[in-house]
Amino acid sequence: MSVAFRREGDDEHKEPEFELPIAVGPNLVTPRGLRRLVEAVAQIEAEIAATGDKEARKKLQRRLRYFHTRQSTAQVQAPPADGSVGIGSRVTYRLNKAEKTITIVGGDEADPALGCVAFSAPLARALMGAEAGESVEYQGRDDAIAILAVETDPETQA
After folding, report:
1. Where a domain ends, among 16, 49, 76?
2. Who's near 34: CB < 8 A, 6+ residues apart?
3. CB neighbours of 89 closer than 8 A, spacing ≥ 6?
4. Where would one find coiled-coil regions in this protein (predicted)?
C-alpha cells in the first residue's frame, strides 16, 4: 500500500490547539473585575478536579491558563476622584440625540448588552478623561458626544 493512503491515526490530522488570545496592552480592571477573575479560576479548578474526561480536562486547563494569566496581570484601577471619566465610571451621554448610560470597565468585564464597555473600546477611549458638561470628539466629529453625568459605579467597586 502506498504511503499516501496510509493513515497513522486521527490525531495527526487535527488542527493544533492554540492558547486563548490575550489582549495587547495593560490588563486594567475594576475591583469587581479582579474578584470575577479569582472566581473564574476557582470555578475552573473545581471543574478540573471533578472531571475524568481527558479531552474536557485539556480544554478546562487551557481556560485556566488564560484566567491565571489575566488574574496575575490585573491592575486594579480606582475610579477618578476628580469627577472625570475613567475605569469604573458610570457615564450618561448624548450621541445623535439619543441619551445612553454606560459603565467603563476592564476587558474581561465588558458586556455591551448590560451597558459595560471595555476601556479599550473606541467609545470609552473618546470619553476617558472628560467631565460632565463637556463635549468630546467621536468618529471624526467635533462635539459629537455631550457628557451629561459622570459618577462612580458602586457595583464595580464591590
Report:
1. 76
2. 71, 74, 76
3. 79, 80, 103, 104, 150, 151, 152, 153
4. none
Q: Which domain holds residue 36?
A: 25-76
DSSP secondary structure string for all residues of 57-70: HHHHHHHHHHHHHH
Q: Rg of the chain over CA atoms, in angstroms?
A: 22
Amino acid identity, residue 83?
G
Question: How many structural domains compose the chain?
Answer: 2
**Bridge partners (DSSP) listed for residue 98:** 95
Task: Return d(Cα 75, Cα 52) in angstroms, integer.
Answer: 35
Q: Which residues pair with 149 in a beta bridge?
A: 92
Q: What is the pLDDT of residues 86-130, one digit of tens each?
A: 999 999 999 989 999 999 999 999 999 999 999 999 999 999 999
